[in-house]
Amino acid sequence: MKKKKFETEAIRTQMERSGFLEHSSAMYLTSSFIFEDSEDMRASFAEEKDRNIYSRYSNPNSSEFIEKVCKMEGAEDGFAFSSGMSAVFSTFAALLNSGDHIISARSIFGSTHSLFTQVFPKWNISHSYFKIDELDKLEKLITSKTKILYAESPTNPGVEILDLEALSQFSKKHKLIMIVDNCFASPYLQQPIKFGADLVIHSGTKLMDGQGRVLAGITVGKRALIDQIYRYSRITGPALSPFNAWVLSKSLETLGVRVDRHCENALKVAEFLEGNKSVNWVKYPFLKSHPQYKLARRQMKAGGCVVAFELKGGLNAGKKFFDSINMLSLSANLGDTRSIVTHPASTTHSKLSAEERLECGITDGMVRISVGLEHTDDIINDIGQALGRI
Ligand SMILES: *Cc1c(COP(=O)(O)O)cnc(C)c1O
After folding, report:
1. pLDDT, tens digit, for every residue of 317-363?
2. Is any ligand 1 atom within 6 A of the Cβ of residue 63?
3. Are residues 115 and 57 in the same domain?
């Protein structure tokens, strides 16, 4: 059959219907599956059959979710996890041995940084960070034990853009596994495998569900690597629940229209902020003033839902701004229908020293807005009135 377009696959990728001929996918809340007879049981455990045995290994709902994301990302195979962090952890843990080394961009999700600095040293797995504007210094970080190159783009919370093609050329030259956390873009805006990534990780908690209901994660990419991740995970047990997989698979049906509107709204908010006198700078990948605007246009379909900006008055102005917000949610999440404002210095990145924060481009007056799907007039009015009070 001819390959269908993204939006069509998101809707029409569906598990086989049951005898009830349900239109929308059924939900299989079952921990295990039964066997016809002893031969069926033997052959199933010997993996001579491609079938469900136990929901820690696979389940029709998680398989449907995985198949959709694979089609969206152009990936061969995948595995679904109970959270984004369990996807990140399990992917590294499955592929690395004691003594191995990771090269990673410094601007990464806070818990991933904690994984590198607090958890992996227990198993003698080390890392080196690079700054996103220092790709020319990558060679110096390579050791005989380097196995993985890791990056996020756009980054959190500074929405900086990394050159995925350049990173993939470097990875290929040094035979590294290139892994991209594509959570901020969603598969609708960017497909890192096209630029040469080997594996792509998502927190399904963000734009994929997009309605703030479930935690989820997924890793997709090259079959040989996914097979290692699958073998590791069926033993260690981080699998996604069938209920959450069902929710996510339904959410993906509307990913395209939701993300289009998120991006449209975010650009309007970014343009509004750029003209405000209380604001030092605004960063949004599709604003012409963004330092990597051209690269963003090349890699992404639109700019995403996150806008970062800096208030002129630093910490004090930040406090006043947050206390004056009426409608927007003060929360650490992102990619929700509800617009959310976060102060990275006092929340998501508070465990870092001030110096470490600056290395990730986080200043005291920096605000991150995840622009939601409310009417832009109301979003901008709320931000505008709060800026007026600082
Ligand atoms: C939220 C997030 C994660 C972690 O996902 P959880 O579902 O919260 O575990 C990982 N990477 C990025 C970029 C994220 O935004």
Report:
1. 988 999 999 999 999 899 999 999 999 888 878 878 888 888 878 88
2. no
3. yes
Instruction: Work out which ligand 1 atom sits closest to the CA atom of 86.
Output: 9
Ligand 1 close to Cβ of residue 203 (< 6 A): yes
**Residue with CA closest to ligand 1 atom 7:** 84
Q: Does the beta carbon of 336 sit less than 6 angstroms from any atom of ligand 1? A: no
CB 148 within 8 A of CB 177: yes
Q: What's the CA gap between 72 and 191, in Å, rounded?
A: 8
**Do residues 328 and 383 make contact, with C-beta atoms less than 8 angstroms apart?**
yes
Given ligand 1 and candidates 108, 203, 336, which is best to mutate, with the most ligand atoms within 8 Å of its CB?
203
Please tell me if the CB atom of residue 342 comes closer than 6 angstroms to any atom of ligand 1.
no
* Domain span at 350: 255-387
Residue whose CB lies within 8 A of the most ligand 1 atoms, among 109, 161, 334, for a mutation test: 109
- 70 and 172 inside one domain: yes
Return the H-helix or E-strand segment holding 316: helix 314-324
Counting every residue written for the chain, the total comes to: 390
| C-alpha to C-alpha distance for 249 and 24, rounded to whole angstroms | 11
Q: Which residue has the tokens 């006092």?
A: 346
Residues 207 and 318 in one domain: no
Note whether 218 and 314 are same-domain residues: no
Q: Which atom of ligand 1 is nearest to the CA of 334?
A: 15
Check whether residue 176 and residue 129 sit in a common domain: yes
Distance between CA 246 and CA 234 in Å, rounded? Answer: 20
CATH number of the structural domain spanning residue 366: 3.90.1150.10
- Tens-place pLDDT, residues 281-312: 999 999 999 999 999 999 999 999 999 999 99
pTM: 0.96
